[in-house]
Amino acid sequence: MLVARSIALFVVAALFEIGGAWLVWQGVREHRGWIWIGAGVIALGAYGCVATLQPDGDFGRILAAYGGVFVAGSIAWGMVADGYRPDRWDVTGALICLAGMSVIMYAPRDH
Q1: What is the 3-state secondary structure (H, E, C) of 25-57?
Q2: Which has the least CB within 10 A, 37, 50, 54, 86?
């Protein structure tokens, strides 16, 4: 159950962080304005809060593992929000990152 909770928190964190960054990008690069930028900043702050809810208390481990989720999530976000079509190397790289995340977070540890 802890693994399922952890994965769900990673997904929510990714939605807030990637969505927040995308909103800021839209506000600045696509000239959509301060409301988009402000919403992005709020979402990025929410990401930081969600990350603290992980059952593991090691900041470095959580952030390192989250990196894999961020990579795969960013590609997925680009597909949905911007029509981006990843090639086989994008997909392969994202899968490698997710495998790394799984090892970092869920490998059995001697403690």
Answers
A1: HHHHHCCCCHHHHHHHHHHHHHHHHHHCCCCCC
A2: 86
Give per-residue pLDDT as tens, 40-89.
999 999 999 999 999 888 999 999 999 999 999 999 999 999 999 999 99
For the chain, the domains span 2-106
CB neighbour class for 73 (10 Å; exposed up to 12, middle 13-18, buried from 19): buried
Structure tokens at 20: 């927040």
The whole-model pTM stands at 0.89
* End-to-end Cα, the chain, rounded Å: 20
